[in-house]
Specification:
Order of helices and strands: HHHHHHHHHHHHHEHHEEHHH
Distance between the termini: 27 Å
InterPro entries: SAC3/GANP/THP3, SAC3/GANP/THP3_conserved
Helix content: 40-55%
Number of domains: 2
Strand content: under 5%
Protein name: LOW QUALITY PROTEIN: SAC3 domain-containing protein 1
Number of strands: 3
Strand order of the largest sheet: 1-3-2
Structural class: mainly alpha
Radius of gyration: 24 Å
Length: 410
């Protein structure tokens, strides 16, 4: 489906394709203009419980559909057998320890906090034991726990460790889903917050040491989960009230991809013409036309998570803008105001000056730019420091809480 390379088309649910039927329903509580109404934590938790009940009912219906598929019976986030083994091996994460036993020689695990680890498939290992598999409703509760109590916690830090723990446990959730062939509404309900978490992490941890965060690994899993989610939309019966949001996020994250563009153009007209998708298409067109001024202007209309999805393309976009101006205003007697270019770049003046200097553009004492196409140079990647130029994204975050962002309540 999406992505510029082949791995995006290899989602776990791509083995069978049913006739494409996509829900065109809109989010009931969404205001006009495609902006989601901000909900507080209490409102989310009420909605989350209702969603879990829907997943439980849907799961009971699916159990009658295919008796040969393994069905999990574990009702806790971590199977009791695994919890005992990890206690004996002293392999519990500090987020999973029972309060008061942290300093013991062999700390105990808290059944309410321990979460099943991701484990690689191994020869002779039975991964289909129902007591070790969590049904979809428990998987959704696990994802909500990882978001509300781990990722969104203000007490747990550093966030690189928070991410590492949540990322591994979400891989375990995905593994249980694949073994049980979870699909339809169950699948979408679990994948949506997972995709949001990975998109948010790609922005928040941008520039961190590879020892703490590998953007390529995060990208691989984000593409796989996004592909699987969009496949759920295409093959399921719905309703999928968040489909517009994720169709737009998929295009913004894979900006310039022919496959991503084709996927959007094949959507039903009413979905393709929705506000979020229309804006994403306009930004994608500006990217393909190498029109960075229009792209950056449109990017100011994105919400925070959409900006996170777009942010990895901003370095090349700003580079194109500086290159165009270096050719268009290349003259000994021509001066261009730094403030004007900073506004176009969506950066403050000091960062705009630093960016221009990195590309060989002179900044004189009067804060004016002296462009010269001969002086334009390609800096080393390390000198760009993408994290320094996150203004356009950070301004959109404002007071949004991590939990609200990942639950789609912004």
């Amino acid at each position: 489906m999406l992505e510029s390379d082949d791995r995006f088309s290899k989602g776990p649910m791509n083995r069978r394709r049913a006739p494409r039927r996509i829900s065109l329903s809109q989010r009931r509580d969404a205001p006009g203009g495609g902006e989601w109404r901000l909900r507080n934590d209490e409102q989310w938790r009420g909605q989350g419980k209702a969603q879990v009940r829907e997943v439980e009912e849907d799961d009971r219906r699916e159990q009658h559909g295919n008796e040969n598929v393994p069905r999990g019976t574990c009702q806790t986030m971590c199977p009791a057998h695994e919890l005992r083994n990890r206690e004996l091996q002293n392999c519990l994460h500090r987020y999973e320890l029972l309060a008061g036993t942290e300093r013991d020689r062999r700390p105990r695990g808290d059944p309410l906090r321990a979460v099943k680890e991701y484990s690689r498939p191994a020869a002779g290992k039975d991964s289909t034991n129902p007591t070790d598999l969590r049904p979809p409703a428990v998987l959704l509760k696990t994802v909500c726990y990882l978001i509300d109590d781990i990722a969104a916690s203000r007490q747990l830090h550093p966030w690189t460790e928070v991410y590492s723990f949540a990322f591994d446990r979400l891989r375990g959730v995905k593994q249980d889903m694949i073994i049980q062939r979870v699909s339809g509404l169950n699948c979408a309900a679990i994948l949506e917050p997972t995709v949001r978490f990975l998109i948010y992490a790609s922005f928040r941890l941008c520039g961190e040491s590879l020892r703490l965060y590998d953007p390529r690994i995060n990208d691989t899993h984000l593409q796989e989960n996004l592909s699987w989610l969009l496949d759920c939309y295409a093959t399921g019966t719905g309703p999928h009230p968040n489909q517009e949001e994720f169709q737009a996020l998929g295009l913004l994250y894979n900006l310039g991809s022919a496959r991503a563009t084709q996927h959007i153009m094949e959507l039903p007209k009413r979905l393709r013409s929705s506000p979020a998708v229309t804006l994403a298409l306009s930004i994608n067109r500006a990217f393909l036309e190498r029109n960075p001024v229009r792209l950056l202007r449109l990017a100011r209309r994105l919400n925070f998570l959409q900006s996170c999805a777009l942010h990895r393309h901003l370095v090349s976009c700003r580079r194109d803008l500086v290159l165009i101006y270096s050719h268009g205003y290349s003259s000994r007697n021509c001066r261009f105001p730094l403030d004007g270019l900073a506004q176009l770049l969506s950066l403050d003046t000091s960062l705009a000056a630093r960016l221009c200097q990195a590309y060989g553009v002179e900044v004189n004492r009067d804060n004016q730019l002296v462009f010269s196409k001969a002086a334009f140079t390609e800096p080393e990647q390390e000198k760009l420091h993408c994290k320094l130029y996150h203004n356009i994204v950070s301004e959109n975050q404002r007071d949004h809480r991590v939990g609200n962002i990942i639950h789609g309540c912004t």
